[in-house]
Amino acid sequence: MRGVAAWQLALFDRTPPRQQFLKWVGNKHRYAAHIAQWIPERYRRYIEPFVGSGAVLAAVAPRCGLAGDSLGPLIEIWTLLKRSPEILLAHYRAIWGEYVSNPKAVYESVRDRYNASPNGLDLLFLCRACYGGVVRFTRGGTMSTPVGPHRAISPDALATRIQAWRERISGTEFVRADFEETMAEAGEGDVVYCDPPYLFSQSILYGSQDFLLQRLWQAIAGCKARGARALVSLDGMKKSGTVATLIEIPGGLFERESMVDCGGSMLRRFQKRGEDMSGERVHDRLLLTW
To answer: Which pTM value belongs to this model?
Structure first.
C-alpha cells in the first residue's frame, strides 16, 4: 500500500473551482459539490480510480489522494498540472496563437498529431476546442470529435483555471492504471469514489467497450472488506425520469442510495446537435457502502 496519511479534514468547502479545467464526457462539475458532501468529514486518504475531469476530486481537495485512469495522456495532463503547469500553458498558448485565425484546420492538425502520437499536451487543447467537449474515441483508439463552433478559451483564461485547480489537486498522486489496480490500494479509513463509464451511453469512450460492471462490484467488495468506504455513480434515470436504467446490483454491497439530478445529457447534446433537448434530463444513482 502507498503511504497513508493521518486522518484528514476538508481544506475547502467541498465545491469545485467555479470554472472547469477539462471538458469531458460524463463531467460531474455541475453536481460535484452534491457528491462531495457524501464524503465523510474524516478519512485517511481519498481514492478516485476513474478520475476523468477530476471535478469531484477538486471538490474534495484531499491533503492525501490517489487518482488513476487507464488513459495515459489524461494522467499526463494531471501530472503536469501538479508538477509543471508552465509546460501545459506554453503548449496551449502556442497552438491557440495559430488556432484563432484558422480554427478548423489547426484543430484537425492537432487532432491528427495526437492520434499519431497520443500525448497530454495536445489532448488538453483538443478537449477545450472539440465539439461540445465530447472527447470521442473510435474502437481503434483514435479521437474523432470534430472542432466545436465555439472558440476555445484563451491562454490567459486557462492560466486562471490552472492556478485554481492546481491548488485543489496538489495533495493527490496520479497514476496510469486500471481501476482494479488503483482500488486495490484502498485500506482502513480510506474513501473511494468511483465514476465508471455509463453503461448505456458511453461506449464511445476509450476502453468502455471492455468495461465489465462485475469487475467493479468485486473491487468495491474488496475495498469494503479492507475497511475502506466506497461510493459509486451509476446510470439512474433518463428521458427526464421516464425511463429507468436496469442494472443488477449485488445484495448487501451497498447500504444507501441517492439520486443526483444531472441536468441535460452532455452526450445527447452532441448527438442531437441543436435539436430540442426537452425530455433529455438524466439522473445518476449514487450508491454508498456505509
So the answer is: 0.87
